[in-house]
Structure formats: structure tokens, C-alpha cells
TrEMBL record, chain A:
It comes from Oncorhynchus kisutch. SUPFAM superfamilies: WD40 repeat-like (SSF50978). PROSITE patterns: WD_REPEATS_1 (PS00678), WD_REPEATS_2 (PS50082). Keywords: Nucleus, Repeat, WD repeat. It comes from the Eukaryota. WD repeats lie at residues 208-250, 252-294. This is Nucleoporin 43. GO terms for cellular component: nuclear pore outer ring.
From TrEMBL, chain B:
The gene is NUP85. GO terms for biological process: mRNA export from nucleus; positive regulation of DNA-templated transcription; protein import into nucleus. One of its GO terms (molecular function) is structural constituent of nuclear pore. It is found in: Nucleus, Nuclear pore complex. This is Nuclear pore complex protein Nup85. Pfam families: Nucleopor_Nup85. PANTHER family: FROUNT PROTEIN-RELATED, NUCLEAR PORE COMPLEX PROTEIN NUP85. Keywords: Membrane, mRNA transport, Nuclear pore complex, Nucleus, Protein transport, Translocation, Transport.
Length: 373, 634
């Protein structure tokens, strides 16, 4: 249970929160995050600041109360939000549009920089765009219409569309490699797509045998490209090794309702965070299973603070991640609740460095600057 | 039916002239739709206003700052409901007081934010919140904390001090000036402090004056002494109320003595202070402006005349204070009558007056709920069955449900209304507009958690129908599975099969190939899955397995009759293979199926060429099979 985590009520239901990336060279903690709202007549994206970070030793609860820096009207619910780079934010809208906002630092304003109006659509209706992943300057989006679209920021048109990639809604997408993505859909399948191939077929499909539970979120291990974590409607956390066929490596009961987001910590991947409709935010910590201290095992890389980590060249393929021990007995997996009390659904979370931010349907944002990792 | 206490307010509708036309209206959940009818006031019809107006009573719910109030108080409300019932009540009182303080701090936070924002606008909302906090605070002191005699006056003093913060501001101004003792507002500050019972601060300020008039040093010292010695009841000490009373009377006599002695005659201000200390009401009334409200007057009066007042005696003093303070001509404001009702310990009157005065149920709903938890409301069945607390919460939550975003909060309120909450929720939840899948999922989750299967089914059906219209068969199937809706799953399978017949190939193979246990939801779906499997087996050249499967689809009656022709046609290539695939028995069964299909049908219906082809192929296959089975390997 974390102390010093207070709610900031913001008069809008928060659907997404994301930290602005910090440059990998500096060791600074993040201080700016963006939020998107949903279910409002006028939705907005907003940028918030949690103030100075250079002050050490001052541990005041009221410091770091997020202050609104600027905001901009958003047409439709914000269904996903990602920082493309330090200045630009890409959002997925429930109208099916994909929008790039630019944050002007000198005037502290936001403006629309690019707009793809009906990127996701049905022949007559609107189809919400449900997920975005970026690898600047490329942007991949997925939507309820089952399309996968590849954009390039600064280019007007669409780079490539995979039509009818899925007969059900695609809920989330993540990069496996620079040319490979993985999507999860509402009939419980993980599909891997290779952009180097021309067709409209996935290169691999994985799913659980047994009940096909819709999957809502996916995240790839920062250092090991074959490990992904997924969460779905039944609140179970699954860790998959995509090289090894059809069975997830481990299934863990996490939440009592839909899991909306799952994130590996970008620099300390032994830590995983998940948030859910049941109002809880869990912090998972795994530890390696042998007596040798972990830094001698080769199971970890030196911390590279980079959001789009690709395995370093010559990376040791026999790295055994502690997530894939296939044995989730209690002794080696600790779970902690991060929010002080039961809230309405926690829709989104993001973690960077020692800072965690999350947003709820109770119109509150929680920021924790002392995450123990 | 009770009489209406106040005149109802009239709201003019723009563009509408009530002399010309009659107005039509229809009630909505939180508002009214009004429109102009064709009926003229004097009969006949003519063209008119084409608009439909929506009239809303509660504008506050759309204020972005008030939204924080609704959300934070929801959090507190839910926490309050979860306090365990089995704890003895004396342990719960501090918890209830702290919850009451939480509610009040939320109101204060909103008020401060409103004040920051509404500098130039008329801050009527801020003033309303101020009054709300005042009323709530008084209810907390009188009802929830239920202070006994002795502490009661102290709590009331705190209450007044909290709501008369301008004294400190004035004091700061005076003390910051060059010569405080000569400041225009100097004596106002001193007297205000005395009126609020803040003797130490009064003494500190008096010192400045004393320094200026060394000649009157003795007089100032005397007053200072009196102020210092004023007894204040301390509930923590072992001193009983009677002991305090004795001490206090003794002190009061001393002050009176000084007055009689004319010790302060030379300085009007000091004499006034002395008179205030003995509780001289006429002098108190002279300082009406400093007191500014009748309840401040009341509390000051009690402090200096009856500090050991009992809660049951309060109402007498409250009424008399109000009469003394207010002009007899002025009409008491709603706030005054509410406070008076509180002093009279008439909780129901307080709630009733607040309900009338305010335009949404937030305040009375939460306050009543808290008072109910403190077991202060007698259960009072209203004519329509639920008790007061539930009635107010239902009204409040129904109001919330009309809001496009705050409806989620209302769900928890309905949950804690045991008698009608569920019914209200069932009716309201189906009317939440569903624009995205994510919202539908949240609504369904709410229904599932409360075992509202009808609503789940209906919502899933809406979403599935929408998906089907947009040709998203996988999504439609996923919704049918969630609702366990076999009929819809059958419909979807029919679509797939129709597509197949039309195009010759399956669309959405990723879905059909990976149906898993969902296949068992409906027979048609099972057939679809198995049929696709047949095609796969055929593609993999596992002919005997394919053949077996094909046959079983017909004999086990999984395949619908309408599809049998297609299946038999699919069997043709298997029959015409060089190698014998269907055994003699299997061929017999196929022939039987064919006969079953063609019997009872008129000649025009049957495609005679196909049938003949099939019969020929079956006969040939039978022959080869018999031969093969009859051959003995030598």
C-alpha cells in the first residue's frame, strides 16, 4: 500500500494517461503527463505537470499535485493516447479518427497537427479506433472495424492498410520488432503481423484453448521481444512466449473484472502493472528462482531507459526471463494493491522511472512518485 | 396531499407566446420537453414555433467544479456504507464525525475553487455552498457529535468562528498599520474578538491601546485580568459541569462588581466590553453590525449568559435571539428557518426545508443518509413505501442518471437503496446510450455484477445487431457468446453459411477455425465449425476422415436439411476418387440420406441432373466398395 498517493479530481472521466518520455541520457524522473477523457459531451486531451523534480529530500504530499498546463478539445472519446515524441501526441477517437496534437512548449498550448478523419470506419457508421502504437515516425492503429492501418507522421495519406484483418474488434496492438506487430481481439486471439509480407493474413495466430475470452490489452517485455503479457475480460493475466506456439506460459488470476491495461516497467521489467474495471491497480513483482543473485544470471539487461527497446545486437538468446519460469507459485510473485481504497474503474495507467500515474472513472487522477522498484 | 408552501417559479420559454397557443409537454427522467401545440387559446390552428424545448431544473449538475463535489462525495458515501454494522455505536461516533468533516471539506474545497473562478460573476453558487456548509456544520455539532451541555457552547463557538473569518482579515490589516491603536477599525477588531470568545487575541490587541494611554494603565490591567480569568469549560478535565458553573458565576459577579464600581466609566469602549462580558443584551444588540447574523448573536449570548446551556434548551434561546436580532418586518430567509429548525432538533423539518430551497438532492440525500447511519431518523414510512433516506437517495441518483457522464456514480447509490434501488437501476441502465464497445462492456459488467441477466441479454443483442449490420461477424459472435444467446449465434452461423453458398468460400476463417468451445452454443454454430473442419481435412487430403465427418454431419442430424444437398454435392469428389473412400455401409447411408432428401418433394424442386449424378456416383462407389470388401487378399 503506497502512502502519499492522493486523488486529484478533474471533472472528467479519464480514459488514458501517459507520461511524456524523458530523454534516455538524462536520469530525470518524468514530470509531464497527458490525459484523455471519455463519455463527456466535450472531451478533451490535457497536459499536466507535477512540478520540479530536482528537489531532493522534500517529501510533501501536496507537492506534485498535478497542475493543468494546457488542454484541447477532442472530438469523440479518447480511446488511446501515445506520445509520438517529446512534442507530439497521437490519439485514437471513438469517431474513428486518428489525430496528432502538437504541444507548443513556449506558449504552452496544444494544437491539432494532423488529422486522419475516418481512418477507421464502416460503410455507413463510425467505427471507433481502439488502439495505437508508435515507433516514430511510424504509427500503427487498430479499430472496431477490424482494420490495421499504418501511418507515417507528416505524411498525408495512409502507408498501408490491412483490410479485414480481423472479423472481430481489435482491442490493442504492440510492436514485437520494427516490422512485426501483435494484435489482440475480442475473440481471444493474438495475431502476429509481419509488414514485410504483402498479404492480409497474419503470420501467426495464438489463443487459449478453452473459453475464448476477449483480450483488451497487451504489452511486450521491454528487452525480450518474444515475451508478451495480455489481459482480458475475465481479469486474468497471461504471459506468452510467442516462439512457443499455442499455450501461454502462465495464467494468473489478477482482477475480478476486465483488465484494461497491462505494462511492463520499461527499465525494470521484473515489475509489471495492471489496472482493471474492478477499481484496483496491481503491482506485480517477480524474482528469479535460483540462489545466484539476479545480476549474475544473465536474465536481466543493464537498465536501458528506452521505451521502444529492441534487443541489443548480439543479445544472448538463451536469456531466461524470470517471467517464463512457468511456475507462478506465491513465493516468487508478489502482488501489491497500489490504490488506497476501492475506486470506480481504473481505466489507464503508465509507469516510467519511479513515477506512476493512473486515471479512473471516478474522475480522479492518482500520481505516485515513489514506486518501489 | 400537502399544500404547496411556496409559490412555484415561472420559467418563460423563448419564442413562445402563451396567449396564442397552448403548450404541450412530456416528462423526462430529469427534465421536461415542451412544444407548441396547434391549439390556439381561442380555438383553430395556425403555423407556429417548430422547436422543441428541453427544460431542466437542475443546472448545477453540469458545472465542472461541482462535478468534483459529486465525485468526491460519492467516494465518501460508498466508504460510509461499508462501515460494519456490528460495531457498537459508541465506537462509530468518531467515525461518523470524521465522515461528516470529510463531506464538509469537500464542500469547502469546491467553494474555494468557485471563488477563485467567479471573481467577476455573481457567485450565487458559491453562496449556496457557503450556506450548505453552515447548515451541515450545525447538524454535525447538534446531531452527530451531539455535544452535551458545557461542550455545546464551545462547539457552537467554533461553528460561528469558522463562518466569520473576516475578523482575522481585519485584525491583520489593523495590526499591520503604522499605529494600530489609532486605526479606524481597531475597536471593531477588539470587540469582534470578544464577541467570538477569543479572549487571548483580544488581550493582545488591547495591549496596543494600553501602551498609548499610560495614564489609564490600571484600567487596562483590570480588564486584561478579567479577560484572562474567564473560565472556559474543558471537557477533558475532571472538572464537572457544576464546578464550572460555580466558577463561572463567581467570575461573572466579579465583572459585575467592576461595572457597578464604575471602574471603566472613563472609556466607553472598555465599558462596553465589560457589559458584553456580563451578557448585557442591549449592548450586544448595539453591535449588530459586527455580529452580522442572529445566530452569532445567539451563540455570544449563550457564551456570556448561559454557558452551561443544555441541548434541549437551545430552541428557546434560538427563537428569542432571532426575534431580538431581526427586524419584525423582514421576512425570515429560508436559511434562517432551516437553522432554527436545527436548533429545535427537528431533523425532518430541516430536511424538508432544505429540499424545498435547493434545486438538487445532493445535500439532503447525503445528509439524511449520514443521519440515518447515526440512527437519528425515526423510520417513517412514506406513502409510497420506502423510507425518507431511500426516497432522497433515489431522487438524487435518478437525477445523476440523466447526466451523460455521472450516471456511473448513480449505480452505487441505487445499490444501497434496498427496496427500490434495483428496480430503478434496471429501468435506467438500459437507457444509457452505447456509442463504443468499451462503454457497452462497462454497462454489461455493471449488470452482470448484479445478476441482471435480462439487461445483459438485451444490451448484447443491441451490440450484436449493430455488429451484424456492419458485417462484423466475429464481433457479433463474441457478443452472442457473452449473452449466451443461442438464437443469435444461430443467426450468425446462417449468415456465414449463406456467404459460403454465395461465394463458394468461407469468409472470416480466423473466426470459424478457432471457435473452440463456443461452438457448442448453438447447433448451427457447431455445424459450421464441423463443416469447416471437413473442408480442412479435405484440403489436407485426409479423405477418409473427411468422409467420416461428412457422413456424421448428416446422420447425427447436425446439418440442417437445407444444407444436405450441398453436403452431398461435396461428397461427389470423394465418391469419384480412384480409391474407394466410402465403405459399403457408408454408401448405403449416403443413399438413404439422398432418398430422405428427395422423397416428399415434387419434381420441379429437385435438381434432377445433380440427383442423377449423385445416384450414379453412389452406385458406382457401392459396387467398388462391395468388391473391395469382398476381396480376400491371397
Amino acid at each position: 500500500m503506497m502512502e502519499g498517493i492522493n486523488a486529484k479530481y478533474v471533472s472528467q472521466k479519464i480514459s488514458k494517461t501517459r507520461w511524456r518520455p524523458v530523454s534516455s541520457s538524462s536520469l530525470q524522473q518524468p514530470d509531464i503527463f497527458a490525459t484523455g477523457s471519455w463519455d463527456n459531451e466535450d472531451n478533451k486531451i490535457s497536459i499536466w505537470s507535477i512540478g520540479e523534480n530536482g528537489i531532493s529530500g522534500v517529501d510533501d504530499e501536496f507537492e506534485g499535485d498535478p497542475q493543468l498546463v494546457c488542454e484541447h478539445k477532442h472530438n469523440g472519446d479518447v480511446l488511446d493516447l501515445q506520445f509520438l515524441d517529446q512534442d507530439r501526441i497521437v490519439t485514437a477517437s471513438s469517431t474513428g479518427a486518428v489525430i496528432i496534437f502538437r504541444h507548443h512548449h513556449n506558449s504552452q498550448t496544444l494544437s491539432v497537427s494532423q488529422l486522419w478523419e475516418r481512418a477507421h470506419h464502416y460503410p455507413c457508421d463510425n467505427a471507433p479506433c481502439t488502439g495505437i502504437v508508435c515507433n516514430s515516425p511510424e504509427i500503427v492503429t487498430v479499430g472496431e472495424d477490424g482494420r490495421i492501418i499504418l501511418f507515417r507522421a507528416d505524411q498525408e495519406g495512409v502507408l498501408r492498410t490491412i483490410e479485414n484483418a480481423d472479423s472481430s474488434t481489435i482491442h490493442d496492438v504492440t510492436f514485437l520488432r520494427t516490422t512485426e506487430i501483435l494484435t489482440v481481439n475480442s475473440i481471444g486471439q493474438l495475431k502476429i503481423w509481419d509488414f514485410r509480407q504483402q498479404g492480409n493474413e497474419p503470420s501467426q495466430i495464438l489463443s487459449l484453448t478453452g473459453d475464448r475470452v476477449p483480450l483488451h490489452c497487451v504489452d511486450r517485455h521491454p528487452n525480450q521481444q518474444h515475451i508478451v503479457a495480455t489481459g482480458g475480460q475475465d481479469g486474468m493475466l497471461c504471459i506468452w512466449d510467442v516462439r512457443q506456439g499455442n499455450m501461454p506460459f502462465s495464467l494468473m488470476e489478477a482482477h475480478s473484472a476486465e483488465m484494461w491495461e497491462v505494462h511492463f516497467h520499461p527499465s525494470n521489467p521484473d515489475h509489471l502493472f495492471s489496472c482493471s474495471e474492478d477499481g484496483s491497480l496491481l503491482h506485480w513483482e517477480t524474482s528469479s528462482n535460483s540462489d545466484t543473485p539476479s545480476f549474475l544470471q544473465g536474465g536481466r539487461n543493464t537498465s536501458i531507459v528506452s521505451r521502444s527497446a529492441i534487443a541489443p545486437a548480439g543479445g544472448n538468446q538463451s536469456l531466461i526471463s524470470s517471467w517464463l519460469t512457468g511456475d507462478s507459485c506465491k513465493g516468487r510473485l508478489e502482488t501489491t494493491h497500489m490504490l488506497p481504497s476501492q475506486t470506480l474503474s481504473v481505466n489507464s495507467l503508465d509507469v516510467l522511472g519511479q513515477c506512476l500515474v493512473c486515471g479512473t472513472d471516478g474522475e480522479a487522477i492518482y500520481v505516485n512518485r515513489r514506486v518501489p522498484i | 396531499m400537502e399544500e404547496v408552501d411556496v409559490e412555484p417559479t415561472t420559467t418563460p420559454i423563448p419564442g413562445f407566446d402563451s396567449n396564442q397557443k397552448h403548450l404541450g409537454f412530456v416528462w423526462g427522467p430529469g427534465d421536461i420537453l415542451v412544444y407548441e401545440t396547434i391549439y390556439k387559446a381561442s380555438g383553430g390552428s395556425a403555423g407556429g414555433c417548430p422547436f422543441v424545448h428541453e427544460v431542466r431544473k437542475d443546472e448545477d449538475i453540469y458545472s465542472p467544479i461541482l462535478r468534483k463535489l459529486f465525485n468526491e462525495s460519492h467516494h465518501i458515501f460508498v466508504g460510509l456504507q461499508r462501515i460494519r454494522e456490528d460495531l457498537p455505536s459508541k465506537n462509530k461516533k468518531p467515525q461518523f464525525v470524521s465522515i461528516s468533516k470529510n463531506y464538509r471539506s469537500v464542500i469547502r474545497a469546491c467553494m474555494e475553487e468557485l471563488q477563485q473562478v467567479a471573481v467577476y460573476h455573481n457567485d450565487s453558487l458559491g453562496n449556496t455552498l457557503l450556506s450548505l456548509e453552515l447548515i451541515w456544520n450545525l447538524c454535525e455539532v447538534l446531531f452527530i457529535d451531539a455535544a452535551p451541555a458545557g461542550s455545546l457552547v464551545l462547539h457552537l463557538l467554533d461553528w460561528v468562528r469558522l463562518h466569520k473569518a473576516d475578523v482575522d482579515e481585519k485584525a491583520r490589516e489593523v495590526l499591520a498599520s503604522e499605529s494600530p491603536a489609532e486605526h479606524q477599525a481597531y475597536w471593531d477588531v477588539v470587540i469582534s474578538y470578544v464577541l467570538q470568545g477569543r479572549m487571548d487575541e483580544a488581550r493582545q490587541v488591547l495591549v496596543k491601546q494600553a501602551a498609548l494611554q499610560p495614564a489609564a494603565r490600571v484600567m487596562f490591567k483590570l480588564l486584561d485580568n478579567l479577560l484572562m480569568k474567564m473560565p472556559i469549560f474543558n471537557p477533558g478535565e475532571t472538572q464537572t459541569l457544576t464546578e464550572f458553573d460555580v466558577k463561572w458565576r463567581h467570575w461573572r459577579e466579579e465583572v459585575d462588581h467592576c461595572l457597578q464600581d464604575q471602574s471603566f466609566a472613563s472609556n466607553r469602549h472598555l465599558e462596553d466590553i465589560c457589559k458584553i462580558l456580563v451578557g448585557d443584551e442591549d449592548v450586544l444588540l448595539e453591535y449588530k453590525e459586527l455580529l452580522s447574523t442572529w445566530y452569532h448573536f445567539l451563540v455570544t449570548r449563550l457564551l456570556f449568559s448561559h454557558p452551561t446551556v443544555k441541548p434541549t434548551e437551545l430552541h428557546y434561546y434560538a427563537q428569542s435571539s432571532m426575534h431580538m436580532f431581526l427586524d419584525t418586518r423582514s421576512v425570515p430567509e429560508p436559511l434562517d428557518s432551516i437553522l432554527l429548525a436545527a436548533f429545535e432538533f427537528d431533523i425532518h423539518q430541516v430536511i424538508k426545508d432544505c429540499s424545498i430551497a435547493l434545486n438538487n438532492w445532493w445535500f439532503v440525500g447525503h445528509l439524511t443518509d449520514l443521519l440515518d447511519h447515526c440512527k437519528l431518523l425515526q423510520s417513517h414510512n412514506l406513502h409510497f413505501g420506502s423510507n425518507l433516506r431511500e426516497f432522497l437517495l433515489l431522487e438524487y441518483a435518478s437525477g445523476l442518471f440523466t447526466h451523460h457522464s455521472l450516471w456511473q456514480l448513480a449505480v452505487d447509490y441505487f445499490d444501497h437503496c434496498p427496496e427500490f434501488g434495483r428496480v430503478y437501476l434496471e429501468l435506467q441502465i438500459e437507457r444509457v446510450p452505447l456509442d463504443t464497445e468499451r462503454k457497452a462492456l462497462k454497462v454489461i459488467r455493471i449488470c452482470e455484477q448484479r445478476q441482471m441477466t435480462e439487461q445483459v441479454r438485451s444490451i448484447c443483442k443491441i451490440m450484436a445487431k449493430k455488429a451484424l449490420r456492419n458485417n462484423r461477424l466475429g464481433s457479433a459472435l463474441s457478443w452472442s457468446i457473452r449473452a449466451k444467446d443461442a438464437a443469435f449465434a444461430t443467426l450468425i452461423s446462417e449468415r456465414f453459411l449463406q456467404d459460403y453458398c454465395a461465394k463458394g468460400t468461407f469468409s472470416d476463417l480466423d473466426l470459424i477455425d478457432n471457435l473452440g468451445p463456443a461452438m457448442l452454443l448453438s447447433d448451427r454454430l457447431t455445424f459450421l465449425g464441423k463443416y469447416r473442419e471437413f473442408h480442412r481435412l479435405y484440403g489436407e487430403k485426409r479423405f477418409s476422415d473427411a468422409a467420416k465427418l461428412l457422413l456424421s454431419l448428416m446422420t447425427a442430424k447436425i446439418a440442417p436439411h437445407s444444407f444436405w444437398m450441398t453436403l452431398l454435392t461435396d461428397a461427389l469428389p470423394l465418391l469419384e476418387q480412384k480409391e474407394v473412400i466410402f465403405s459399403a455401409d457408408q454408401t448405403h447411408e449416403l443413399m438413404f440420406c439422398l432418398e430422405e432428401l428427395t422423397s416428399g418433394k415434387s419434381d420441379e424442386d429437385i435438381e434432377t441432373t445433380k440427383i442423377e449424378l449423385l445416384r450414379l456416383a453412389l452406385a458406382r462407389n457401392l459396387a467398388m466398395a462391395i468388391v473391395k470388401e469382398g476381396t480376400v487378399e491371397v
